[in-house]
User: Which sequence fits this backbone?
């Protein structure tokens, strides 16, 4: 009887060992490892130049689409309403010419917000697309629910700790790869955790494939949701003041709530100050 029990235990141990070895082989062959913790990159680069305001304002409009993630606190979203309502429909002057400001805000209560997000990315008339919310451990942006993900990962295996027990997923880029970015200038801000640069890798790859001149803004370290509207409003304020990237980064990083976030900017253009001299009449 004891011999039979011993054989059973050894057989189970053999199967368990084989399973572990198989899992390790799969990870090795895919060139991926399970990412459990977030890390900052060694360098904190200060970008040169500024946004291509000439391209953004060429049609006489500044069109901005702001998306809030599925579980954003109501107070955070409501805190941005007054500023957006004040700016929407107003005009600013750039090099003596009027520019109409149009701002659209999309939340989880909108119908199919993920589809709207994709459309905004593909719309050549929209100058800025901003997402603020969770990144689901590198899987992508969450919209109507925790599982309504715009998949845009870089292929890493990630451990999702929003569920119990935690599950391991491969962060695929299905939705990103299905997005056709136009060959027109655009700023995309992903105000969500991009520690280790997984989104910078996948999005930069897709921009290159589409030949799209997109400026990508990402964030290192988890974003504290209660303050997200301040960081988004800081960005809009700086763009309306024709600020350079150094100023935009400085003002974003200055908002510290429990922990410091770090804005990473991958600029496309590096113009000189003379390119953006304001008309003295205005």
Assistant:
């Amino acid at each position: 009887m004891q011999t039979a029990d011993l054989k059973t235990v050894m057989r189970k141990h053999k199967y368990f060992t084989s399973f572990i070895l198989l899992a390790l082989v799969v990870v090795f062959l895919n060139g991926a490892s399970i990412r459990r913790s977030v890390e900052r990159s060694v360098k904190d680069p200060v970008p040169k130049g500024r946004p291509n305001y000439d391209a953004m304002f060429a049609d006489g409009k500044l069109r901005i689409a702001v998306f809030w993630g599925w579980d954003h606190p109501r107070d955070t979203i409501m805190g941005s309403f007054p500023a957006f309502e004040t700016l929407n429909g107003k005009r600013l002057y750039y090099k003596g010419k009027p520019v109409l400001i149009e701002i659209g805000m999309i939340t989880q209560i909108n119908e199919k917000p993920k589809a709207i997000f994709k459309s905004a990315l593909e719309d050549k008339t929209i100058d800025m697309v901003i997402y603020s919310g969770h990144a689901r451990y590198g899987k992508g942006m969450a919209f109507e629910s925790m599982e309504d993900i715009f998949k845009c990962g870089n292929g890493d295996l990630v451990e999702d700790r929003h569920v119990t027990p935690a599950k391991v997923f491969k962060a695929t880029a299905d939705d990103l790869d299905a997005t056709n970015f136009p060959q027109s200038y655009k700023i995309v801000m992903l105000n969500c955790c991009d520690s280790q640069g997984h989104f910078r890798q996948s999005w930069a790859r897709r921009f290159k494939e589409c030949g799209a001149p997109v400026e990508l803004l990402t964030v290192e370290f988890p974003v504290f949701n209660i303050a997200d509207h301040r960081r988004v409003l800081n960005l809009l304020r700086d763009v309306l003041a024709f600020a350079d990237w150094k100023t935009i980064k400085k003002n974003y990083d200055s908002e510290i709530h429990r922990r410091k976030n770090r804005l990473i900017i991958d600029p496309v253009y590096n113009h000189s100050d003379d390119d953006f001299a304001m008309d003295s009449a205005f």
In short: The longest helix spans residues 2-30. The chain has nine helices and twelve strands. Residues 6-10, 12-32, 271-282 have pLDDT under 50 and may be disordered. The radius of gyration is 22 Å.
